[in-house]
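Reposting from the mailing list since nobody answered there.

I have sequence plus structure tokens for a pair of proteins and want to know whether others read the tokens the same way I do. The first protein:
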Amino acid sequence: MIRIAVIGAGHWGPNLIRNFHDKRASEVVWVIDSAASRLEEVRSRFPEVRVSASIDDALGDPTVDAVSISTPTVTHHAIAKAALEAGKHVLVEKPITSDAAHGDELCALSERVGRILMVGHVFLYNAAIQRVKQYIDEGLLGRIYYVSMVRTNLGPIRMDVNAAWDLASHDVSVVNYWLGGPPLSAAALGGSWINPGIEDAVFATLRYPDKVLVNLHASWLNPKKAREITVVGERRMLTVDDMNMSEPIRIYDKQVTDARTRPGFIDTFASFRASVRDGDITIPKISAGEPLKAECDHFLQCIARGTPPLTGGRDGVAVVRALAAIQRSIANNGREEVL
């Protein structure tokens, strides 16, 4: 039984408590939060769980094996560092830190003390995202040309980070996972309408090796909740709609070929049609499941087996570097920034 302290009981914290407090592989023994009202709610629902406003109470408890951190991004570094120094395994919500150097420090510390450092990039534990990774690795789509990613909603509007750090961090983690590494550069524009200096919407383009382009649209100021991805490959294309729980993936057997009428330009509608192959649409069966539960279970398995996590600290830092490049580009009116 792995004993967990959950630090932060706000928007995301209750979900972590629910998943870790199953009393099979793990149990929550401490919940830490600065708001008395949240602690009172935890106390009423889980009377056996100890609560406190002081992180030291949890970190000083020798029976606590690991901590799960779901506090504002600017606090991640200090809390995760204190937890690792106290000998605890750490699951910290994305992004790992607001500064890549701080993230590197946490990675080095976790390696030195021999503790797991995992980042909560929960979408990598989504069965549809993992299936697309399989398709790309198998070459089903052929060479990848570009990826378009849309993540929008009306709220929640955050005060600590902008829409890119909050929303696009998911997409950067996903495409890094799919393509096997970080981008080379980023160019972005953003708009601040609600809170000065905090972008409510961000439009970014990332350049990856092998001439792959990735376009991101992240906004918490949009009337439609969207979690949509399009992957365009040389041989096939696919879409992922995370809002479609039953059929999230569609594979399009479509491509542009060189079967064109000579001369080598498209001069008629018929020759245009001849250059585009339009095949079947396949909808693969994707097993249902809660990505957060899969993430929490993976964290526990890594602790028990001593194996590195899918979303380790180094992966989290790579996302932070991309987000920092996006932020620099916004500050420089869309100038392309090298990572």
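The second protein, same order (residues first, tokens after):
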Amino acid sequence: MDSTVISLRERTRTDTRQAKPSWLKVRFPAGERYHHVKALLREHALHTVCEEARCPNIGECFNSGTATFMILGDICTRACGFCAVTSGRPANGLDWLEPYRLARAARTLGLDYVVITSVNRDDQPDGGAAVFAACIRTIRRENPRCRVEVLIPDFMGDRAALQIVVRAQPFVLNHNVETVPRLYRRARPKARYQRSIELLRWAKEMDPSLLTKSGMMVGLGETREEVFQVMADLRGAGVDLVTIGQYLRPSEKHLPVERYYEPSEFEPFVEKGRELGFLHVEAGPLVRSSYHAHRQAGLESAVGGGS
């Protein structure tokens, strides 16, 4: 095992007591625009992954007038060990007015770039793919200049569901692998690594012009070599953009942080991305899948890094 990996048993005892490194500390979200965005989301009965997943960048993003919308409700049918979103069995069906509320909110905010993600809805035959497609089309109809990035679940490997989303022509199609294959049973017990890789491969096959993207966390006990292999697998599936950030434990009920990566330790991932031929790699302690998404998608040939 890589000497940099701290034992899970040791980290489990100390994780809840140790202070976060200085580079992971962010200001408490505040500001007039931050509160305006929160009020707008409540007014339109919309959810954001920024709030539900307790993203550390929420203050920066809300104050810049951006948010990652979370559709299909706020109850996820899976219970991943790292995720703060509430899990259970949704009591309600799909909300077909959600695409219209989302489009109105995006127009009110004056957004030119919208990111849409969702909870897993394994209770639905298509996993909610049709709602994703409706959101893309409605936003484009309301604001033709607005580009839409979607961060989709794996749809249980349903190729037909994926095709529904691809045919709606998002600007970027993102699906996160989250971690290395060895840790899936512990971190993503209802997911399958190879299924996620194949989903991304299928998307590129369905529309070769579509920008595809994936992301993962470090700090769960993986080695650097395992991360490099995931990056190679993603590039082999035709993925264009990759994000890599530090895992932060949402609560004591979630998986412990095995270790905190120094900011400089993300640089080899950027270098590896350049070597593999990705269009862009966003890597850093506070990087999340949709962080600076508009900037990532706008870079056509350069590989960069940052947090």
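Reply #1 (J.P.):
I read it the same way you do. Residues 27-298 form a domain with the TIM Barrel fold (CATH 3.20.20.70).
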